[in-house]
């Protein structure tokens, strides 16, 4: 019976020895890690929204009178205006001609009447000062001069209806084709102009952000077609009312687009900076272990890893604020920490 148990006991001793050897090996081996010195930095809390941008200034222009259509020459190109051309405020893009209409306006006659009535009033004024006419005659002369002024101004306004003029600096985005000299009717759409320098974007913000957003908060604007360029904007309008169905409220971003990198109708992403902290501990979010009892990181102390329980705060773009548990100048383990335990031996690979 005694001989029967000798092999079993020997096997148990052998297994125990192997296990002790393995534990001693796992304790003694140094795990390679990469470290990063903990530093104070700045971090921003960002709310991200997407939407379609539109031009802040856009105008669709119709003819104000009927007549013959004549597209004008762009003085900057020497050619007829076309879609995509830049225009300046006051540029005459299209003229409408109607000889009968112009004759009825009689701008030359209105100007002559104005000049005559002005001379007559000046004459009446001089005579009145010498006692040659009564006050009534002088006032009547002034009345005729004022009436002539209004008639002349009205004539100018009537003639102005024969021109389609750019109301602001911008770009021609639509120019329906009409043959030169063809007769078109009044109230016909003939021109569309947009300004690209300033764009706007309406967005719906969740109710949870209503205490965080405020006027003039900065935003960064990106579009997939220009991934290497980020434009700036600011939140310039906020609605105080919350939609009861979507639990959102409306905001409007003004986007600086001086170089015309964005176009009306583009789909963009807006990162609105709702909060910012300076001189705080900021580390890579990937360096944190999330466990049932909270968050932890490992720091290197000599050749040993020490576990630290931490409390976090603001996070953005893969970085996160540590509000408790880490100090500046400590050596944070950012790679190779996955299998570490407190007091594990380590080998720093980037000394």
TrEMBL record:
CC annotations in GO: efflux pump complex
Q: What's an example of a GO molecular-function annotation for this chain?
A: efflux transmembrane transporter activity
Q: Which residues form the CusB-like beta-barrel domain?
A: 204-271
Which keywords annotate this record? Signal
Signal peptide region: 1-22
Q: Where are the transmembrane segments?
A: none
InterPro entries, alphabetized: Beta-barrel_RND_2 (IPR058792), RND_pump_MFP (IPR006143), YknX-like_C (IPR058637)
Annotated ranges, domain YknX-like C-terminal permuted SH3-like: 280-348
Pfam families to which the protein is assigned, alphabetical: Beta-barrel_RND_2, YknX_C
> Would the keyword Signal be found if you checked this record's keyword annotation?
yes
- Belongs to which family? Belongs to the membrane fusion protein (MFP) (TC 8.A.1) family.
Q: What is this protein called?
A: RND family efflux transporter, MFP subunit
Q: Which organism is it from?
A: Saccharicrinis carchari
């Amino acid at each position: 019976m005694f001989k029967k148990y000798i092999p079993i006991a020997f096997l148990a001793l052998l297994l125990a020895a192997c296990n002790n050897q393995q534990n001693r090996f796992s304790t003694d081996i140094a795990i390679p890690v990469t470290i990063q010195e903990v530093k104070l930095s700045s971090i921003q809390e960002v709310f991200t929204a997407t939407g379609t941008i539109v031009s802040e200034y856009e105008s669709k222009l119709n003819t104000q009178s009927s007549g013959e259509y004549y597209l004008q020459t762009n003085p900057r190109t020497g050619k007829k205006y076309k879609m995509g051309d830049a225009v300046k405020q006051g540029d005459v893009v299209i003229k409408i001609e109607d000889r009968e209409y112009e004759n009825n306006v009689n701008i030359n006659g209105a100007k002559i009447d104005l000049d005559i009535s002005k001379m007559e009033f000046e004459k009446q004024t001089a005579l009145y000062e010498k006692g040659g006419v009564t006050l009534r005659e002088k006032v009547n002369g002034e009345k005729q001069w004022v009436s002539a002024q209004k008639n002349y101004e009205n004539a100018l306004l009537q003639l102005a209806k024969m021109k389609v003029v750019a109301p602001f600096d911008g770009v021609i985005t639509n120019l329906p084709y009409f043959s030169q000299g063809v007769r078109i009717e009044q109230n016909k759409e003939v021109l569309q102009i947009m300004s690209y320098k300033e764009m706007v974007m309406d967005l719906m913000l969740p109710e949870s952000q209503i205490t965080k957003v405020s006027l003039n908060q900065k935003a960064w604007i990106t579009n997939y077609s220009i991934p290497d360029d980020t434009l700036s904007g600011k939140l310039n309008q906020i609605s105080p009312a919350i939609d009861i169905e979507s639990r959102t409220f409306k905001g409007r971003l003004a986007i600086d687009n001086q170089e015309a990198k964005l176009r009306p109708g583009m789909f963009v992403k807006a990162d609105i900076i709702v909060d910012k902290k300076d001189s705080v501990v900021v580390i890579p979010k990937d360096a944190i272990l999330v466990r049932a009892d909270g968050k932890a990181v490992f720091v290197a102390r000599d050749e040993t890893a020490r576990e630290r329980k931490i409390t976090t705060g603001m996070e953005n773009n893969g970085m996160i604020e540590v509000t408790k548990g880490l100090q500046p100048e400590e050596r944070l383990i950012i790679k190779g920490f996955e299998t570490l335990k407190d007091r594990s031996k380590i080998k720093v690979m980037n000394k």
